[in-house]
Amino acid sequence: MKLTKEDVVRIAKYLFVGGSSALLELVLFQVLYAVCGWQIAVSNVCAVVVATAYNFLLNRSWAFGQSGNPTRSVILYLLLFAFNTTFSTTAISVLVAHGAPSVAAKLFTQVCIVLWNYVLYRKRSEEHTSE
User: What is the rounded CA–CA span in Å between residue 126 and residue 129?
Assistant: First the structure.
């Protein structure tokens, strides 16, 4: 598969949005968990909610440039959000319970989510352009 200039730009934008939202999520998670002493699950869900809203807005308006049905986009994004949040909260809790540092557990889940989210966003973007 040959990458076009459009592919490279889209990937760069996705990585910027993903990287900045991942950093926001990681920092907020650590502040809530390690500094404020909140429960791990509550800290994770709060951090994910904030980062997800940021990520959705930037990916939709800038990285993938979707201007189609916003209601459908929000519904699909919320389904993905529910899956990602359940996965990350469960995985972090299990990993920390087995001795992993919280920051390492959080980073592991973020890498998994970034990889499958790109595939799904790309697929949705391609479907949108063919509609």
Answer: 5
Q: What is the pLDDT of residues 33-69, one digit of tens each?
A: 999 999 999 999 999 899 988 988 887 778 776 666 7
Q: In a 10 Å sphere around its CB, with 0-12 CB exposed, 13-18 middle and 19+ buried, how is residue 124 labelled?
A: buried
> What's the pTM?
0.69
How far apart are alpha carbons 114 and 92 in whole angstroms? 16
Phi-psi region at 65: left, alpha or beta (left = phi > 0; alpha = psi -120 to 50): left
Convert 29-60 to b/e letters by CB count within 10 Å (16 or more is b): bbebbeeeebebeebbbbbbeebbeebbebbb
Residues 108 and 91: beta-carbon distance below 8 Å: yes
In the 8-state DSSP scheme, what is residue 4?
P
Closest CA to 91 of 58, 48, 121, 27: 48
Cβ(21)–Cβ(54) under 8 Å?
yes
Side-chain half-sphere CA neighbours of 97 within 13 A: 9
Q: Interior CA angle at 113 toward 30 and 105, to 5°?
A: 40
